Amino acid sequence: MDFGRVITAMVTPFDEQLQVNWDQVEPLINYLIEEQQSDSLVICGTTGEAPTLTDDEKLKLIELSVRYARGRCKIIAGTGSNDTAHAIRFSQKVENLGVDALLIVAPYYNRPSQEGLYEHFKAVAESVKVAVMLYNVPGRTGVNLDAETTIRLSRIPNIVATKDCANTDQLTRILNDAAPGFLVYSGDDSSALPALSVGCHGIISVASHVIGKEMQSMVKYYLEGNIQQAAELHRKLHPVFTGIFRVPSPAPIKHALALKGVQTGGVRLPLVRVSEQEGQFIQSLFE
Q: Which annotated residues bind pyruvate (predicted)?
């Protein structure tokens, strides 16, 4: 299964009371597909503030996303948990909503061994028929899904891809030995072009909320062999890649969206909105 080159990890729109703004879901999806050219959308991932969404909110948000996308892009739903049994139950519910794949994050806080990680992902994948994408983000989970474990997991038939935020050394080891057709996506915006250069398929991005078209151009330049143009565009976009993570995400990208007239509200505690000074810095990235 090909999820495209630029996948957006979509924010969850909130209203003034920090309830999910259901009326804003369709306009946001249309904007990301039509204006920012997202090939796929991750719903209820880290950027979607999954830790503070209830299961009922997640299910409704995923269902609406599938409906509003209308087949124009693939929908990947975040269903991971640090409780394997819960991840299985929730993944089975989401599978019935018509998603194209599930994104399963490495269990956080528990800090399992590599064998524990393998058994966790294997159990979740074998409980569903839909495609599964692994998600390795050591900076958030406290554990690294090693290259060797990812390679083992790539041989489970419906584990078809990984979103990995590790360095290019780890990405390269995975690419060298993973099962044929297994897709590797970088989860780090600033590593998008370097990741492509070692053979990754694409990027699962936060910045693509506001510079998705430019990122698609960068990827296109690279794939067509216009390396200098791709590199120049990467350097031009780099301040945005890094600047939107200057304070905890997704507060900065929600502020950047507001600057573009796309209202997605604030963030739920324990996250907080950007300060006035931080907002000015984010605005300066686009001037």
A: 47, 204
Residues taking part in catalysis = 135, 163
Distance CA 47, CA 148 (A): 27
Supply the pTM of this predicted model: 0.97
Cβ-count burial 1-19 (b if 16+ within 10 Å, e if not): eebbbbbbbbbbbbeeeee
**Residue 204 known to bind ligand:** yes
Query: What's the pLDDT at 72?
Result: 98
* Per-residue pLDDT reduced to its tens digit, 211-254: 999 999 999 999 999 999 999 999 999 999 999 999 999 999 99
Give yes or no for a contact between 201 and 5, defined as CB atoms under 8 angstroms apart. yes
Is the backbone peptide bond immediately before 270 cis, with ω within 30 degrees of 0?
yes
Show the CA angle centred on residue 285, arms to residues 281 and 287, nearest 5°: 110
Non-local CB neighbours of 229 within 8 Å, separated by 6+ positions = 221
Token output for 141: 């989970």
47: annotated binding-site residue? yes
Nearest of 62, 68, 80, 3 to residue 29 by alpha carbon: 68
Q: How far apart are CA 175 and CA 199, in angstroms?
A: 7
